[in-house]
Amino acid sequence: MNAATETDRALVDRVAKGDRAAVRLLFMRHHARVYRFVVRQTGSEMMADDIANEVFLELWKQAPGFEGRSEVSTWLLGIARFKALSMLRKKKEDWIDDDDAAQVPDSADTPEVVTMKEDKAAALRRMIDALPEEHRTVIDLAYYHGQSVTEIGEVLDIPVATVKTRMFYARKKLGEALKAAGYDRGWP
């Protein structure tokens, strides 16, 4: 079996035995997806770059304990989510206080101007960003990372029924937001 057709699980088995080439192959296959996911979670490309690299260091450490109960890509996104949440918690300590924030001039367009300037896809992305974190995350994993409901449950460590409920409410809120912004169709 050559490297191009070798399964992710077989590569994790090789990593568990100390094979650095297998880590490089998994990195090439999954780094972009992990990076994009973390950018969406953190809003920071620099932070996402650091976290994505840490995910593959964690892969190196945890490979012997990988039990194969989920896809490797799902496992890596779960590690990425945990690391992103940890880093965001640490970062909160460094945020500016309310008084300093009030001194920063608001040069943002009004919601009406923003909606007029953006096409439907960009407006939708902004609406997704405005969702509560739990709804935004399930939408992001499903539609931007192609994860199934079961895989989302594994990444977030929540029951499938909870994923479905969050997805329902997220879609409902997005449909309402699109309608309020003047778009005829709700969910595309």
UniProtKB/TrEMBL annotation:
Pfam families: Sigma70_r2, Sigma70_r4_2. It comes from Mesorhizobium humile. NCBIfam families: PRK12515.1 (NF009168), sigma70-ECF (TIGR02937). This is Sigma-70 family RNA polymerase sigma factor. Belongs to the sigma-70 factor family. ECF subfamily. The lineage of its organism: Bacteria, Pseudomonadati, Pseudomonadota, Alphaproteobacteria, Hyphomicrobiales. Keywords: Sigma factor, Transcription, Transcription regulation. Residues 123-174 form the RNA polymerase sigma factor 70 region 4 type domain. Residues 26-92 form the RNA polymerase sigma-70 region domain. It comes from the Bacteria.
